[in-house]
Design a protein that fits this description.
Structural class: alpha+beta
CATH class of the domain at 3-101 and 465-489: Alpha Beta
CATH topology of the domain at 3-101 and 465-489: Uridine Diphospho-n-acetylenolpyruvylglucosamine Reductase, domain 2
CATH superfamily of the domain at 3-101 and 465-489: Uridine Diphospho-n-acetylenolpyruvylglucosamine Reductase, domain 2
Number of helices: 19
Bound molecules: flavin-adenine dinucleotide
Distance between the termini: 28 Å
CATH architecture of the domain at 3-101 and 465-489: 2-Layer Sandwich
């Protein structure tokens, strides 16, 4: 089938005003932030989609998916476009990007039952603005909050900066509506809890557009007490000392909203004005006064217990001020992109993993040693370090961060720099029994390890794909490895 036929089929479902075939927009839609440098340099190696379409109703989504299913047209669901792992990258000639831009209604804010229902294309910031005026919050606050939308946030199993208190998006979603490739619309109802078989919300949450299209989401609400926020910061000797304090806080049952430890290198890029060459440990406690005071006392007791690793406390105003500037707006994203047109450097590539408390310090050291010893372009690294930013009763995450000067052709950047580092991080994580993917989704560039990530349980994922997307039209190459796409992995 050629692209004109695809467009004719789409035109039977949507008016021209909801179909975009502008060349620049199609180029932009061909890849996400994973290939942002190649995209900025106009050397993308992936085909543009046939069109971007903007359905306005669930019924239109259902008709589009059913049509694509019948004709074997690849579908890439899209919401806020902040994907970092290739989930929006296109590997097929005949692809429709189904964008949630016009599914943008806040349907209901139910203050009594503490839940809000929105369409997939509502930005989290827009919802939070409405809620904050009423003294409420979702508790979800990824750095991309100003731009990311509820459909994408649920589809990627995203997590926010206050996760240690509120959890990830999977802890927030009460119910949702989603559309499957055959056009079936499934509504998962909003109840506090149920034991009605397996939790089917999780078929949609984290599916990264590979099983279904999420059209509507209901999330929990919490009372919001920003005036009570307390920030605490410390300079510490090393990452392992910080991890010990994080664990102590968590296993004693405290739930600060933020609990983080930064390596010295990562601290330098965030806290150059106060880090003094040390690692940084920081916390934020929030909620009603009683909870905040108790949480503060719990953190201070944990720091005291491990004071051998402590260098000195940090003025809490510095931590509060840093937090206030952390989120990225669309302008920040655009400025970074423009910067890449002129600069041969890549700042802030990340790979985020998780493991239990025992494993995390070992994993951190193993990765640091291997990258320094084995990465052929180690001399081009301008920064290599990381932080832990999401903790649980049984472990925490690690966010490896690496910046480098690019001394190769733009089209070779990922092959020469990012992939070898990512491979070391993923290999070490899987070897030690951790998860190679804490919160950005697998996307396309960790799909070669999806089987290893899940082991014998991969059977369940494979069966889900076969059952819900038997013709393989949903986001080809994402989560599920495709040999055909291997040429884009090199
Ligand atoms: C500056 C910056 C900071 C970030 N900070 C965080 C952070 O703190 N925490 C975090 O978890 N992530 C973070 N991310 C990553 C990203 O914001 C998240 O993955 C986010 O959840 C993506 O949402 P989106 O609406 O932009 O989705 P998109 O980028 O549009 O899509 C992401 C994936 O979801 C699928 N998808 C999108 N919409 C739908 C839908 N309606 N139905 C089914 N599938 C769909 C897409 O096909 C794709 O695979 C950050 C990204 C940036 C650029």
């Amino acid at each position: 089938m050629d692209k004109n036929t695809v467009l004719e089929l789409v035109a039977r479902i949507l008016p021209a005003s909801q179909i975009n075939t502008t060349a620049d927009d199609l180029y932009d839609a061909a890849a996400d932030r994973y290939k942002k440098y190649a995209k900025a340099r106009k050397v993308l190696d992936v085909p543009p989609p046939a069109a971007i379409v903007y359905p306005r109703t669930t019924e239109e989504v259902a008709r589009l998916l059913a049509m694509c299913n019948t004709h074997g047209i690849n579908v890439i669901p899209r919401s806020g476009k902040t994907a970092t792992e290739g989930g929006l990258e296109n590997w097929k000639e005949n692809t429709l990007v189904v964008d949630a831009r016009d599914l943008n209604r806040i349907i209901k804010i139910d203050e009594y039952n503490m839940q809000a229902t929105v369409e997939a294309g509502v930005t989290l910031q827009a919802l939070e603005n409405e809620l904050n005026q009423r003294g409420l919050t979702t508790g979800h606050s990824p750095q991309s909050k100003p731009v990311a939308k509820l459909g994408g946030l649920v589809a990627t199993r995203s997590i926010g900066q206050f996760s240690t208190l509120y959890g990830g998006i999977e802890d927030m979603v009460v119910g949702l509506e989603c559309v499957f490739p055959d056009g079936h619309v499934a509504r998962i109802k909003n109840v506090p809890r149920r034991a009605g078989g397996p939790d089917i919300r999780h078929i949609a949450i984290g599916n990264e557009g590979t099983l279904c299209y999420i059209t509507e989401v209901t999330v929990k609400l919490y009372r919001h007490f920003p005036a009570n926020n307390v920030f605490l910061g410390y300079l510490i000797k090393d990452v392992a000392s910080g991890i010990k304090v994080l664990r102590e806080v968590m296993v004693n049952g405290y739930r600060p909203s933020v609990a983080r430890v930064y390596s010295e290198e990562d601290a330098r890029q965030h806290f150059s004005h106060f880090y003094k060459g040390h690692c940084v440990l920081l916390f934020m406690a929030e909620g009603n006064q009683g909870i905040v005071q108790a949480t503060r006392a719990g953190i201070e007791a944990a720091v005291e217990r491990f004071k051998d690793g402590l260098v000195e406390p940090v003025d809490s105003g510095l931590i509060a001020a840093w937090f206030a500037r952390l989120n990225w707006s669309q302008k920040d994203i655009d400025d970074e992109f423009q910067g890449m047109i002129h600069n041969d450097s890549h700042a802030g590539f990340t790979t985020e993993v998780s493991a239990d408390w025992e494993t995390i310090p070992v994993l951190y050291e193993n990765v640091m040693k291997r990258v320094r010893a084995e990465f052929p372009r180690a001399h081009d690294l301008t920064m290599l370090g990381g932080h832990s930013s999401h903790s649980y009763i049984n472990g925490t995450n690690l966010y490896f961060v690496y910046n480098y000067a690019i001394n190769c052709a733009p089209e070779d950047e990922l092959r020469v720099y990012h992939h070898p580092i990512q491979r070391i991080i993923v290999e070490e994580t899987l070897k030690l029994g951790g998860s190679m993917c804490h919160h950005h989704g697998i996307g396309k560039y960790r799909s070669e390890w999806t089987r290893d990530e899940h082991g014998s349980a991969y059977y369940l994922l494979e069966k889900l794909k076969q059952a819900f997307d038997p013709n393989g039209i949903m986001n080809f190459g994402t989560i599920f490895y495709q040999a055909e796409g291997a040429r884009f992995l090199q």
